[in-house]
Specification:
- There is one protein chain.
- This protein is mostly beta strands.
- It is built from no helices and 6 strands.
- It is globular and about 40 Å long.
């Protein structure tokens, strides 16, 4: 969770570099806009955002074992129309990975 929300309304992508030493590692990334109320609201049954929240989910695969792999993730899906209150980047899967150079940008 971010201490403050990020206004990415003028930005188009998220860049992340990932490192792993495990073969077949996948990393799930969920970019969450928390809406105007600033609260993460999630359906406990589906894990999907509810209320005024929106998200975009991406699965990073094909990581280079013992090296860095860069990902350029489009801020698309439901985030395309609402990305002015980004409040969290949620990571799933694994097991072991390192992240570096995480930033939003405009292409």
């Amino acid at each position: 969770l971010f201490n403050n929300t990020v206004d990415a309304s003028a930005l188009t992508h998220l860049h992340i570099d990932m490192y792993t030493q495990q073969a077949s590692t996948t990393v799930g990334i969920q970019i969450r806009d928390v809406g105007a109320n600033g609260v993460i609201e999630t359906d406990v049954n589906t894990g999907l955002p509810i209320g005024d929240d929106k998200d975009y989910r991406f699965t990073a695969t094909g990581l280079t074992v013992g090296g860095w792999t860069s990902f350029e993730i489009s801020l698309g899906g439901d985030l395309a129309s609402q990305k002015n209150n980004l409040g969290a980047i949620i990571l799933t899967d694994g097991p072991d990975f390192i992240l570096d150079n995480i930033y939003f940008y405009k292409e």
